[in-house]
Write a structure and sequence with these properties.
Structural class: alpha+beta
Strand order of the largest sheet: 3-4-5
Strand content: 35-45%
Length: about 100
């Protein structure tokens, strides 16, 4: 994730017994979208998978990489997102010919 417009911030509210992660993607998301043209539904699912990967990585403090991969025989063949402890994020969606997610 790029430093200027993307962020992953862990937070703790000890009195409420709550901990969490706030993720904001802008530049990284635009970079992912620049590599392929996705239908709106596929782009939305890919974005959700990318954010989920970043959230899980931040929440579990993974020392390595965390991947989310879904496969199907329907229109959306593969949905993949991966975030590393170093903050790199990548994602891809593969659709059947002429299909929308």
């Amino acid at each position: 994730m790029t430093a200027q417009t993307d962020s992953l911030i862990r937070f703790l509210l000890p009195d409420a017994g709550v901990r969490g992660v706030h993720v904001q993607l802008q530049a990284t998301w635009q970079e992912i979208l620049s590599h392929a043209v996705y239908p709106d539904n596929a782009a939305e699912l890919l974005g959700e998978a990318c954010v989920a990967s970043a959230l899980f990585t931040g929440h579990t403090k993974v020392d390595g990489r965390l991947s989310i991969q879904l496969r199907s025989n329907t229109g959306l063949r593969t949905l993949f997102a991966e975030c590393t402890a170093a903050g790199t994020l990548r994602g891809i969606a593969q659709l059947a010919d002429g299909a929308d997610a």
